[in-house]
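Hi L.,

As promised, Biotin-dependent carboxyltransferase family protein:
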Amino acid sequence: MLEILDPGLYCSLQDEGRVAQGDIAVPFSGAMDRQSLHLANHILQNDLNASCLEFASPGPTLKFHYSTTITITGAKAFLVLNGKSIAPANNAILSLKPDDVIKIKTLESGSWAYLGIVGGFDSEKVLGSQSLSPGITVLSGLLKGNTINYSSQDFLFSASSSRVKPAFPWEKVKVLKVRKGPEFSLLPEEIIRKLRTDSFSFTSERNRMAAPIHELLPANRLEILTSPIFPGMVQLTPGGKMILLLMEAQITGGYPRILFMEEPQLNLAVQMKPGQKFMFEIV
């Protein structure tokens, strides 16, 4: 089993999440950056939906009680294995022995990282997913002393196995492509113009539910009936605040849904650092 010695920030178990269950008020949940989740599993030859540990910075400290093989993807991770620094560790295949301890110190060039383990983690599925989610699973995040079982199979990789070169595409993002949301046509021309021409950035007040945008649009009186919402939608408050909805977003909301970001762009957006400037391209 894996033992959590220190969970760090936002450490949880995530897979692709829960789909088609909004009618019973269940959020999607799942990995913030699905591409990085899939990459970890691809490197380890797991099923792409196998659960991984997801965490932000500072990362967790973990003890492995049985031999296994892991990899880390997503944000650039600097880790210490039994007191020895491995920096950066991304996309490397790391073989661990019983009682090995890994401390993930910091994340750079991104906001979320993923630790995949060969064979996947073994935990209870709730509504078809192992993803931890507030109000849905007993734990909303992993705590000090928690343990997670993993496969005891020995799976040896060839010493000549090639390493996937780490890439951090969100570092160079200047434009996020979005589609018009259901209420886009209700926007005043002034707001539409600013959406097309102004630069924006995410605040540091982000979590798994939402990423607020720092720059304000003009105040407005747009109102809608409570309507379905889901990850990737951008809502606009009466005060001009834009909010990008993420994986733990609620199922319905009353703010106008002005833009929508598809998954490849959402994967980039969640990894961008607070203050990193971008423009919207409405496609």
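The two ends are 47 Å apart (CA to CA).

Thanks again for sending the construct details.

K.
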